[in-house]
Amino acid sequence: MKLSQARRDFYRRKAKEEGYKSRAAYKLIELVKRYGLIKAGDYVIDFGCAPGGWLQVASKYVGSKGKVFGFDIKAVDINLSNVYTYVLDISSPDALDFVKKSVLGEADVILSDLSPNISGVWEIDHAKQVDLTLKVIEMLPHLLKPGGNCLLKVFQGQYLDLVRNRLNRIFDKVYLTKPSASRKESSELYFVCISYIG
Ligand SMILES: C[S@@+](CC[C@H](N)C(=O)[O-])C[C@H]1O[C@@H](n2cnc3c(N)ncnc32)[C@H](O)[C@@H]1O
Question: Is the pLDDT reported for residue 24 higher than 70?
């Protein structure tokens, strides 16, 4: 068995044992531990939240005084008292209004693990993924508190620097990283953005 396959199986088994809905949960745990992205009492928005691993992790970090609002094209089956989920296509023209009405107020943290259906053609998948990420970035002025944090998945490719440049202009610090639970052969990376300037 290849090392990458073994690692994938390790996280899948661990997620099953520990009751997480996806092994993606471990990516968020690692990044929150390393960068302190989420704290108790925070309001968190999670775009592309299905099946709900990140919702479970964020729910634990924000605790009983915080809230987590998840949005995805797919419905999510989750029952946690501080988590609220909504079915939404982030590309739809009324997406921002819908999110604003659902969240009621600005968030402390915005997460995006958005990923399009993968065609297997690198350039197309990259362009589609960046398009989803830019939709989230465009919403930030309406949804994120000044001083808030953001975590964005992005696929590697020609538009990566475009995304990085936009983020550098609106956050105090921006890091590009790949958590160990992310498959080595996958092109996904994460922008960790600290302290929104606006
Ligand atoms: C990698 S999964 C997210 C996994 C999640 N973070 C977890 O921990 O379980 C990516 C998600 O993006 C969602 N997605 C893709 N395009 C979308 C769109 N236009 N609007 C909303 N969600 C979308 C998919 O339905 C999918 O559930």
Answer: yes
Give the pLDDT of residue 4: 64
**Contacts (Cβ under 8 Å, ≥6 apart) of 168:** 174
Ligand 1, pocket-test mutation among 28, 54, 114, 125, most atoms within 8 A of CB: 114
- The pLDDT of 17-43, averaged and rounded, is 96
Instruction: Tell me whether residue 1 is in a domain.
Output: no
Q: Show Cβ contacts of residue 43 under 8 Å, excluding neighbours closer than 6 positions.
A: 62, 66, 67, 68, 69, 103, 105, 106, 107, 108, 109
Q: How many domains does the chain have?
A: 1
This model's pTM is above 0.85: yes
At 185, is the pLDDT very low, low, confident or very high (cuts 50, 70, 90)?
confident
Rounded CA gap, 70 and 59, in Å? 11
d(CA 182, CA 21): 16
Mutate to test the pocket of ligand 1, among 16, 113, 139 (most ligand atoms within 8 A of CB): 113
Range of the domain at 185: 24-196
CB 52 within 8 A of CB 28: no
Distance from C-alpha of 170 to C-alpha of 194, rounded to nearest angstrom? 10
Q: What phi and psi values does residue 182 have, to the nearest 5 degrees?
A: -80, 135
CATH code where residue 71 lies: 3.40.50.150
Q: Kindly list the protein residues whose Cβ atom lies closer than 6 A to any atom of ligand 1.
A: 21-22, 24-25, 48-54, 72-74, 88-91, 113-116, 132
